[in-house]
From TrEMBL, chain A:
This is Sugar ABC transporter permease. Residues 1-11 have a biased composition (Basic and acidic residues). One of its GO terms (cellular component) is plasma membrane. SUPFAM superfamilies: MetI-like. Keywords: Cell membrane, Membrane, Transmembrane, Transmembrane helix, Transport. CDD domains: TM_PBP2. It comes from Streptomyces radicis. One of its GO terms (biological process) is transmembrane transport. It comes from the Bacteria.
TrEMBL record, chain B:
Belongs to the binding-protein-dependent transport system permease family. CDD domains: TM_PBP2 (cd06261). It comes from the Bacteria. InterPro entries: BP-dep_ABC_trans_perm, MetI-like, MetI-like_sf. This is Carbohydrate ABC transporter permease. It is a multi-pass membrane protein. Keywords: Cell membrane, Membrane, Transmembrane, Transmembrane helix, Transport. The chain crosses the membrane at residues 27-47, 91-113, 125-145, 157-174, 203-224, 258-279. The lineage of its organism: Bacteria, Bacillati, Actinomycetota, Actinomycetes, Kitasatosporales. GO terms for biological process: transmembrane transport. Its main location: membrane. One of its GO terms (cellular component) is plasma membrane.
TrEMBL record, chain C:
CDD domains: PBP2_TMBP_like. InterPro entries: Bact_solute-bd_prot1, SBP. This is Sugar ABC transporter substrate-binding protein. SUPFAM superfamilies: Periplasmic binding protein-like II.
């Protein structure tokens, strides 16, 4: 009982209050004392070496004409790459596709995963099996996911057309991945499918933060399902929802591998995601400088969107 | 309100509502089944594919049950590629990097939540930025750094990359879970004279279990499925991981050796599923179990 | 309380994994014996089981005969070889011997990552492979790869449907003209059950990669799209360049003899419909015969026909990008690597590799091998077409990949789908297209 007794005090608003000032404060470096540094460093050092370093280097390429090949030396060219980017209509067009894709996938992922997490949190029979099966998309490697879904969507021999036809929903087989109006919705469905498990797991773990007593109290008060959800579950889950949604949005905006396996960006550029441009610019055409500029432009756009989305959490952080 | 009385009252209320409950339960099961059909049917299709002959795979009316099921695809897959070796490598890399990532992320996330400072704020910002920047531009500088560390074509090198690769998620999510741990508990421990490390270990950690498990799952699966780093960082055939081996069943212009690919992919999916099945209980048992049993 | 297991289980797991990692690091990290023997990495993209087998067998034979120069077989994949190579080139860790195709060599050669093989290859090999083929790997006067396998596009035909329709069966001596092909496709198109919907289409164009097909087939009508003007590459899209594309557009959008839906498919995707009599003819690469042979239902009759002719001497001409073997500039043992390539591409070995990959050898001696001119599985049709193969016009054009991805692929997809007309297509390909090429030629 020792651990759970103080739990009813753990209501929102108690979290994140500043630590009490102690005498240790004098021995601080950059606002942290030795003990804190000791806990932080094991994570910090690998990040500095293998993440910060490469990333700053990669970002700095945006101001150069860096190319693949060793025949021409790299030169500093200022913001030329960025001014070129302003006239790159194809890249700008792909932003529209990218935003539609990222918004739809992230929103659907959240709604569906929330429903699933709430179900899996119930004391249902075969819960362990359901929980395991719900994670199937996560367990399948991406290349396999792409190929499996291509088979599912296959016009002549696909299980989807077969099923829809036998249910009498369609007369003739649909060309899901090559039809100009079906392709984007079709790949969005796969994106949602592939990303649901991790959102579900995170939310499921987050649901454990909902104080049991509060839930039961609300139950006894005779609160309806919806009211119980909005007054008890949601407030406790909100920080986790914000955190995972922000990450999901970034990841979805940045992903292109799955869509590339499914459609190669076709038909006619309908599913060309912006990150595909950066990838092709760097790896297929060897234009690292220009690709880095694209990368930074995308970082800027996502950062603005995220700042709007997370402004509350960020404000809490600054306090 | 004390927990015991709450539970007794709840039990009485429950009896009066049982009828409504049954209807609710049926709805819940129905919804769950729909979810599972949507999420798991590609696995079934994969299994079914793995038992079909090339002729049947090129058939225009697909069936769920193979007409003449055979193990030929499994035999072909094992003949063509060193699947066991690759599975061992993947298990080693994914398991080690997941454990290390969680082990170093927990203390760091704790500090980032409990000791707000310039460093931890920069760290939080970093987590997000590092997820926004295109991976393709990081690969080459990363390659050069690892080369200087003589870590190319080595599994420990790959493990290091995966640790760093899953740290942002681990730190970001764990922060959320740490915030949910009541401060009062730690303060009580601190008053008792426990060091920060002891507090972290004996008070915070047990309460973090669901978050830890979610993070562990994430780190494991990310490393298990990761493909691009493994492709460019490993050279020796005997060091290849499962995800790289799987692409060897895919040919030019999207042609694929479907049967053996499905067989190998099914085998590649099993360890993760097994891992989930084992861990899923812990996903919720931490605080809840404590509350119920206490 | 469940505190105990949660804390110790991960700890124990960590210890086990750390130990295992340590063992793996020590056990596998050896760099080979330091006794003067050389180890070369051979990155092979062989994919079909027979081809992998043939490659490995040749590597074994080489290793048995050359104890000083050991070759290690490393399996790569067409799917991702470019990314893998670019990274390892830039990181200075490239494999010594590299299997690739000619269209991927341009940028690597200009980038200085591939060795010039001019002085490293034996003269017999230079003489045995026709100049045409060497042209596909020669950039700026240097030879950056040995073109060793190539394949024409052919028509795979459903024998029963062709017999039913009573159409003339073409040969390489007397092929269909494109006009005849259009009529044949119409004859083959059927609405068997009379419900107003087509049940059998004459032809299914799998156009997941529309550009290389459109360019390479244009040679038969005297087109080439890429013209060299005073050392500068320029795209032009005149009547000769667009004749085949116009025909495909017509078949899909006017004649109704080719389905619109197959336009987004890769070659393999069209096979189920082909076996089910939904498509009578499939324009596919020669090596697709392997998949057809493996996947066809028992008793299914199929044959290999030449692509239609644009008339005249060059009527059967088409562009190809052969498979190549190259040596990394960074390799410490370039001569040894070139020796191994010469060994792999020796005429008798080239025959084995060609049979393994269901492709044609470039070597003149190998092509004359009786085992390749059998009627069986359409081998002879391919061999007879070998003389008509020309270097694809896209080879050596800097900026081609970008032109292809950004301009040509979407433009051709829209044109074939009937979303835009020929005038729009021409404008896209030349106006926007040449702007991209110009950037590479500044």
């Amino acid at each position: 009982m020792s651990l759970t007794a103080p739990r009813d005090r753990a209501v929102p608003g108690r979290r994140g209050t500043p630590p009490p000032r102690t005498p240790r404060r004098r021995k601080q470096a950059l606002g942290l004392d030795h003990g804190a540094w000791f806990l932080l460093l094991p994570a910090l050092i690998p990040i500095l070496v293998l993440s910060v370093g490469p990333l700053l280097y990669g970002a700095s390429l945006a101001f150069t004409d860096s190319q693949a090949g060793r025949t021409e030396p790299t030169q500093f060219i200022g913001v030329t790459n960025f001014s070129d980017l302003r006239f790159d209509d194809l890249f700008l067009d792909s932003f529209r596709v990218g935003l539609v894709w990222a918004f739809c996938v992230t929103a659907l992922q959240l709604v569906l995963a929330l429903g699933l997490a709430l179900l899996l949190d119930q004391n249902l029979r075969f819960r362990w099996l359901a929980r395991t099966l719900a994670l199937v998309p996560w367990a399948m490697p991406e290349v396999v996911v792409g190929i499996m879904w291509r088979l599912v969507y296959h016009q002549d021999a696909g299980i989807l057309n077969d099923t829809l036809a036998s249910l009498g929903l369609i007369d003739s087989n649909l060309d899901w991945l090559t039809n100009f109006s079906l392709a984007l919705p079709a790949v969005i469905a796969v994106g949602v499918w592939a990303g649901m498990p991790q959102t579900t797991v995170v939310l499921l773990a987050g649901l454990q933060n909902v104080p049991l007593e509060l839930r039961e109290a609300a139950h006894i008060d005779g609160a309806g399902v919806w009211r119980r959800f909005t007054t008890v579950t949601w407030p406790a889950l909100r920080p986790v929802v914000l955190a995972i949604t922000a990450l999901n949005f970034i990841w979805n905006f940045n992903s292109f591998g799955l869509v590339y396996i499914l459609t190669q960006g076709g038909p006619g550029g309908e599913t060309r995601l912006p990150m595909l441009f950066a990838y092709e610019e760097a790896f297929k055409y060897g234009q690292f400088g220009y690709a880095a500029a694209m990368g930074l432009a995308m970082v800027a756009v996502i950062a603005v969107l995220l700042a709007l989305f997370l402004r509350k959490r960020l404000r809490e952080d600054v306090q | 309100m004390s927990t015991t009385t709450a539970r007794t009252t709840a039990r009485t209320a429950e009896r009066t509502r049982r009828v409504g409950r049954v209807a609710g339960r049926t709805g819940q099961y129905a919804a769950l089944v729909l979810y599972l059909v949507f999420l798991a049917f590609p696995l079934l299709w994969l299994i079914s594919t793995s038992f079909k002959s090339p002729q049947e795979l090129a058939s225009i009316d697909p069936t769920w049950i193979p007409r003449e099921p055979s193990l030929d695809n499994y035999r072909a897959a094992f003949d063509a590629q060193p699947l066991l070796r690759a599975a061992f490598n993947s298990l080693l890399v994914a398991g080690t990097s997941a454990v290390i990532a969680v082990a170093i992320a927990v203390p760091a996330a704790y500090v980032m939540v409990r000791h707000r400072s310039r460093v931890t704020r920069a760290g939080t910002a970093w987590i997000l930025v590092s997820q926004m920047f295109p991976l393709v531009l990081i690969i080459i500088p990363l390659f050069l750094i690892l080369r200087n560390l003589r870590m190319i074509d080595s599994l420990p090198g790959l493990i290091m990359v995966y640790v760093v690769w899953s740290l942002p998620f681990a730190l970001w999510m764990l922060q959320g879970y740490v915030k949910a741990v009541p401060r009062s508990l730690e303060e009580a421990a601190a008053v008792d004279g426990a060091s920060r490390l002891t507090t972290l270990r004996s008070v915070v950690l047990p309460l973090l279990t669901p978050g830890l498990v979610a993070t562990l799952m994430f780190a494991f699966v990310t490393a298990w499925n990761e493909f691009f780093f493994a492709l460019v960082l490993l050279k020796s055939p005997e060091k290849q991981t499962m995800s790289v081996i799987l692409t060897l069943f895919v040919g030019d212009e999207g042609a694929a050796d479907l049967g053996p690919l499905a067989a190998a992919a099914f085998l590649a999916t099993l360890p993760s599923l097994l891992f989930f099945a084992l861990l899923q209980r812990r996903l919720v048992s931490g605080m809840l179990a404590g509350a119920v049993k206490g | 309380m469940r505190r105990t297991p949660t804390r110790t289980a991960p700890a124990r797991a960590a210890a086990v994994f750390a130990l295992a990692a340590l063992l793996a690091g020590c056990g596998l990290g050896d760099e080979g014996p330091d006794d003067g023997t050389v180890t070369l990495d051979y990155l092979s993209l062989a994919w079909q089981a027979e081809s992998v087998e043939a490659n490995k067998a040749l590597v074994d034979r080489w290793n048995a005969a050359n104890p000083d120069v050991r070759v290690r077989y490393v399996q790569g994949s067409w799917d991702n070889v470019h990314d893998q190579l670019l990274t390892s080139f830039m990181g200075g860790e490239a494999p010594d011997i590299i299997h690739n195709d000619a269209s991927d060599l341009t940028d690597f050669a200009y980038g200085g990552y591939l060795a010039d093989l001019t002085d490293l290859l034996p003269p017999e090999l230079r003489a045995d492979i026709p100049e045409q083929a060497w042209g596909t790997t020669t950039f700026d006067g240097g030879v950056y790869g040995v073109p060793f396998l190539q394949e024409p596009r052919v028509l795979i035909a459903n024998a029963a449907l062709l017999a039913d329709a009573g159409v003339r069966i073409p040969t390489t001596d007397d092929p269909w003209t494109w006009e005849e092909f259009e009529d044949v496709a119409a004859d083959l198109t059927r609405d068997t059950d009379g419900d107003g919907e087509t049940d059998t289409y004459g032809v299914a164009w799998s156009m997941s990669e529309p550009v290389s097909q459109s360019v390479n087939l244009s040679l038969s009508t005297g087109g080439q799209l890429f013209y060299r003007d005073g050392g500068e590459n320029e795209v032009r899209y005149g009547a000769a360049d667009s004749a085949v594309a116009e025909l495909i557009h017509r078949q899909v959008n006017e004649d109704g003899t080719a389905p619109r839906s197959s336009l987004g498919m890769g070659g393999s995707d069209t096979l189920p419909g082909f076996f089910a009599d939904r498509y009578a003819l499939l324009p596919l690469n020669f090596s697709f015969r392997q998949q057809v042979a493996q996947q066809a239902p028992d008793g299914f009759g199929w044959s290999v026909l030449p692509m239609p002719s644009g008339g005249g001497d060059e009527g059967l001409a088409q562009g190809v990008a052969p498979q190549t073997l190259s040596v990394a500039q960074d390799s410490d043992h370039r001569q040894a690597a070139a020796d191994f390539i010469a060994f792999l591409t020796r005429a008798d070995h080239a025959v084995e590799l060609a049979r393994g990959d269901w492709m044609l050898p470039t070597s003149t001696t190998a092509l004359a091998d009786p085992s390749l001119s059998t009627e069986e599985l359409g081998w002879r049709t391919g061999v007879e077409l070998a003389a008509a193969l020309r270097p694809s016009p896209v080879l050596g054009v800097r900026g081609y990949p970008e032109w292809k991805d950004k301009i040509a692929t979407p433009a051709f997809q829209e044109y074939y789908n009937g979303a835009v007309d020929l005038e729009d297509l021409r404008e896209e390909l030349t106006d926007d297209g040449n702007r991209i090429l110009d950037r590479y030629q500044r």
